[in-house]
Amino acid sequence: MSRFRSLLLPTALAVGLGSVLATPVATAAQAIPATTAECDTTSTPYNYVVLYQPQTPQAEVDAELAAKCGSRVAYYPEIGVAVAGSRDAGFADRMGVHRAYSGSREVAHPATSEAAAMRAQARAEAENEETVEVVSTADLSTHQWDMRMIKAPQANAIDEGSHSVTVGVLDSGIEPTHPALAHALDPAASAGCNTGAPDTDPAAWAPTTSDHGTHVAGTIAGKDTERGFTGVAPGVRMASVKVVNDDGYIFPEAAVCGFMWAAEHGFEVTNNSYYIDPGMFYCPGRPGDAAAFEAVRRAVAYSQEKGVLNVAAAGNSGFDLANPPETDPNRQHPVDSTCAILPKGLDGVVTVSAVGYEGTKSSYSNYGTGEVDVTAPGGDRAQLPPGATSGCVLSSVFGGQYGTKCGTSMAAPHAAGVAALIAGERPGMSPQAVSALLRAKAERVPCGDAAACTGPAAKNSFYGHGLVDALAAVR
Questions:
Q1: Which parts of the sequence belong to the Peptidase S8/S53 domain (predicted)?
Q2: Using CA atoms, how far apart are residues 283 and 321, in angstroms rounded to an integer?
């Protein structure tokens, strides 16, 4: 998981989307208060997620936002989440700091110089996923140790996946002309989400500064017969849902847009190889965090209700997620048991840890009892295949080329691909059932000699229920 890491409201809520918010919101029966000062119309604009009661009429949303120095960018009435733009520094205070949050404003205006330094360090560490080697070998299949590990070639001989299944790649965009990806990419199902509102212009969902999404896509459904490269499920379709901006950030409104797009367009699976910025952990009891946490939670829950299985990377910080650090590594916020890395920390999301060539946990991979569902190849520079110069995972990169990257970002799409195979074999199966089969069909991986690993082979802190198994998925 790169930095592509890139709510319960404190006094609120039951889990359901129709729950009544305890935080005050404007309704037809309530007058919308006017602003107490003139709005700033000249400063830098920022986008915010803003919480409402689900099904609040859009006219009421627009009226309140305008009265409090904002304007609507997007509104998702099914979950009561608006995306608003405002130039006014007091916008969140006017809306209520448990109802409104801007990740982009927090990046631009860090609380302290130390907070800015922490975020810069986190960005530097994210470079762990850079392309370390562009591979020019004529037969690329010799480098695909990851596919052999999960028995993908044997599975493909039986079933390459159904073209009726769509996997949404929520990431930095998919290169549409890449020879391994053009066959699978569905432009009609693709959208850019960085403003918080879906934009179907190809320029909005194509990659610009990062080939991360292109690499992820190749693992899921790539196929280049001439070069011998094949992904887990080359028969399925993919949608490019761009949630990573050109600075490498994934803000809450982009993720909300991505999950809602997946729900509205009937995707069976999404892959989420990132965490939501600018924090690593979001805490439902904190001002600002509360709104971001709940907005994303509602979008994820809605997508699941609409039949989407969401798969996410566990993260590359080497944390025991069952015993998280006391302070968010990206900022100075305290972390407690209510806090979570989003989206992987939300109910129903399949969390994937990483293993290297030797089949043991990658040195960087997060882990944790009850936190990891399955594991998959993510690579490890210390676990080199015989004769290889890279222990990372080979897949598609910019310019129609192929290269290696390491990370739980690379592990998650293996699991997403296997989930897509399961969904294709069993049309109409609920995401909960697909998730259960993904876990049940995984190859059990015992802890071995790893002292930090706890639990039996059937479910432990390093590997969850085991290594995803593509062959078992199609049998």
A1: 164-466
A2: 14
- CA 187 – CA 237 distance, rounded (Å): 10
Q: Is 113 a catalytic residue?
A: no
Distance separating alpha carbons of residues 194 and 85, to the nearest angstrom: 13
The question of whether 212 is a catalytic residue gets the answer yes
Ranges of each domain in the chain: 124-473
Cα separation of 420 and 473, whole Å? 9
Which of the listed CATH numbers 3.40.50.200, 1.25.40.10, 3.30.413.10, 3.40.50.300 matches domain 124-473? 3.40.50.200
Cα dihedral sign, 227-232-236-239: negative
Closest by CA position to 438, among listed 351, 334, 316: 351
Choose among 240, 117, 134, 132: nearest CA to 187.
240
Question: Which of 171, 289, 328, 373 is an active site residue?
Answer: 171
Q: Which residues pair with 128 in a beta bridge?
A: none
Active site residue 178: no
Cα 194 from chain centroid (whole Å): 14
**Active-site entry in 86, 353, 365, 409:** 409
String of DSSP letters for 129-186: GS--EE---S-GGGG-HHHHHTTHHHHHHH----TT-EEEEEES---TT-TTTTTTB-
pTM of the model: 0.93
Among 212, 215, 265, 465, the active-site one is 212
As a residue count, the chain comes to 475
CA 422 to chain centre: 20
Decide if 409 contacts 377 (C-beta within 8 A): no
**Residue 234 · residue 161 · CB < 8 Å:** yes
> What does each C-alpha distance from 195 to 42, 59, 83, 127, 359 come to in angstroms?
20, 21, 8, 25, 40
SS3 295: helix
In angstroms, rounded to a whole number, what is the distance separating the alpha carbons of residues 371 and 117?
29
Give the angle subtended at the CA of 324 by the CAs of 322 and 327, to the nearest 5°: 165
Over residues 270-304, the pLDDT tens digits come to 999 999 999 999 999 999 999 999 999 999 999 99
